[in-house]
């Protein structure tokens, strides 16, 4: 959802999409990273990491969100 909203902002230029992406980013951080663990938890009810639940993609989406909010251009891999 975060990536979709960032892309929508890039296409339309409407900052509301970026604001909503920021809302979902903060919500995800609160749900999956708020326990002080270095990686997102498998669910908000567990305290362990599983890559199959989308943790790496979530972290990459947060990086893209940071870049969009700070208007940073980084080379894409």
Write the layout of secondary structure elements.
Elements: H1 2-12, H2 15-32, H3 55-70
Architecture overview:
The protein is mostly helical. It has a domain at 1-34. The chain has helices spanning 2-12, 15-32, 55-70. Helix 1 (2-12) packs antiparallel against helix 2 (15-32).
Helix percent reads 55-70%
The structure class reads mainly alpha
The rough form would be described as: elongated
Largest sheet: none
- Mean pLDDT value: 84
Strand content: under 5%
* Rg: 13 Å
Would you list the SSEs in sequence order as H and E?
HHH
Question: Termini separation (Å)?
Answer: 21 Å
- Total strand segments: 0
Number of helices, counting only DSSP H or I runs of 4 residues or more:
3
Low-confidence spans: none
Short précis:
The protein is an all-alpha fold and 77 residues long. The chain is 58% helix and 0% strand. The longest helix is centred in the N-terminal third of the chain and has 18 residues, at 15-32.
List its salient traits:
mainly alpha, single chain, 3 helices, 77 residues, elongated
């Amino acid at each position: 959802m975060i990536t979709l909203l960032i892309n929508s902002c890039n296409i339309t230029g409407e900052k509301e999409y970026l604001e909503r992406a920021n809302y979902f980013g903060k919500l995800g951080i609160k749900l999956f990273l708020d326990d002080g663990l270095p990686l997102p938890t498998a669910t908000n009810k567990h305290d362990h990491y599983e890559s199959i639940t989308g943790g790496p993609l979530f972290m990459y989406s947060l990086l893209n969100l940071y870049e969009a909010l700070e208007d940073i251009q980084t080379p894409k891999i």
